[in-house]
Design brief:
Blueprint lengths: L11 H9 L5 E7 L6 E7 L2 E8 L7 H16 L17 E3 L2 E7 L11 H18 L12 H15 L6 H19 L8 E3 L8 E4 L2 E4 L6 E3 L13 H15 L13 H18 L5 H5 L6 H18 L11
Helix pairs in contact: 3-6, 4-5, 4-7, 5-9, 7-9
Amino acid sequence: MADGHPFSRLTPDFILSAIEGRGYVCDGRLLALNSYENRVYQVGLEEDEPLIAKFYRPGRWSREAIAEEHAFAHELLEAEWPVVAPLCNQGGHSLTEFDGFLVALYPRRGGRAPELDREEPLRVMGRCLARLHAIGGLRRFASRETLDPVVQARDAVNYLAEAWVPLDLRPAYLSTTADLLTLMDSRWSTQDSISLRRVHGDCHAGNVLWRDGAPLFVDLDDSLNAPAVQDLWMLLSGSPEEQRAQLAIVLEGYHEFADFDYRELALIEVLRSFRMIRYAAWLGRRWTDPAFPQAFPWFDSQAYWERHVLDLREQLAALSEPFAVALDDR
């Protein structure tokens, strides 16, 4: 990495020193894992199983917010919910600091991606998420975010229009996003009476390990206060008809452990719109991290922004349509 970026300091010696500072004896094996927001490594230990070390991006989260994330993971683990929670040191702390970096260690767990095109995995995911939301509903985060997709999307649009959208595409981008934000605001304004709770926040297949016919959830980095549907919609894929069928199966499993507020279905396309806009802004705001131009070289191309505007127009049409699920129990 280029000199000057905080992550450029994460040399092998630095990483191993941070781990050994927690009392572990490393054997020198070090493998960088696929992570961009933070930096995550598999670290070999002498006479023990490797562990996973997460170095948080400086300035991304406050210490209090990360502590809430870790506390939530341990609360879930104590309730026998399938999550990989951070390891605690002898003083009972899961978050430590090493030379300016906040660091967490995790046990290594294996697994494969869930087959979310099959009914049983979808039904099992629904059961697990119902249990998660029952626990998450016991209280709210105090230091972590509360989801507000309209406000956050508007901020991202303003940033992208100023810093990244090519000049010739800016009128189309601003017109499309203005219409999109208006519809998002109309849908989201109905959520005042919808219950918010602690949720996983980034519940897609990449954050689930399938082991012995059951899911094991990882990475609560984006956990926040949000409607339950935030953890459901990212499991869906394919055509609108396929997504409706998948969601019906997820909710069948969900209802075995908890009720679901069907008014939240109106928020799915709001959340999808927000994720599309936020993802582009995330790439732009991380562009000074040398890992990003290397991994996403297409981001600053004319072709990307032309495609992005077209995708937003398609999403505008989707947001104009209701999202219905054919279930008898509503």
